[in-house]
Amino acid sequence: MTIRKLNITESAFLADMLYEAIFIPEGHDPLPREIIEDKSLSRYIENWGKDNFDIALVKEIDNQPVGAIWGRLLTQENKGFGYVDDSTPELSMAVKNEYRNQGIGTKLIKAIVSEYQKIGVKYLSLSVDKANKAINLYKRLGCEIVAETETSWTM
User: Fold this and answer.
1) d(CA 31, CA 104)
2) CA neighbours within 13 Å on the CB side: how many for 116?
């Protein structure tokens, strides 16, 4: 098991992970794959690598990527779902379904926090649907709720 930086040539895998990161409540049909082309989602991966705040890590098992975590500094003019301010990068994460609940998310979060600390970033944010079980992981790792909508929390 390895955690490594995303290669710039792996944009298709990052797009796959963006699609996997979309929370679909149990019993609901998946959204069409094209949904990631919507500006509200594409902002998380388009023109990847544009600055040093674009950090992405990949978890591999037997040389196969099974999950990813990535962060991007979004601004007020182009804010994401977990936007806090113009100096707080926003995280996104996905682990392939068959590899969930094995500690991979915990390892990915700790690894990306370390990467951002190396460049002087003190705070990170994320958005999570209130029905998503991942909220327990985020709370266990010390994330705090800083904003709320009807369906999600910004941590």
Assistant:
1) 25
2) 26
**pLDDT tens string 12-53:** 999 999 999 999 998 999 999 999 999 999 999 999 999 999
- Report the relative pairing of strands 90-95 and 152-154 from DSSP bridges: unpaired
Q: Would you tell me how many other CB atoms lie within 10 Å of the CB of residue 16? A: 17
The residue written with tokens 């990527």 in the block is 65
HEC states along the chain?
A: CEEEECCCCCHHHHHHHHHHHCCCCCCCCCCCHHHHHCHHHHCCCCCCCCCCCCEEEEEEECCEEEEEEEEECCCHHHCCCCCCCCCCCEEEEEECHHHCCCCHHHHHHHHHHHHHHHCCCCCCECEEECCCCHHHHHHHCCCCCCEECCCEEEC
8 A C-beta contact, residue 109 and residue 139: no
Q: Dig out the tokens for 50 from the structure.
A: 């544009």
Distance, in Å, from the CA atom of 139 to the CA atom of 143, rounded to the nearest integer, reads 5
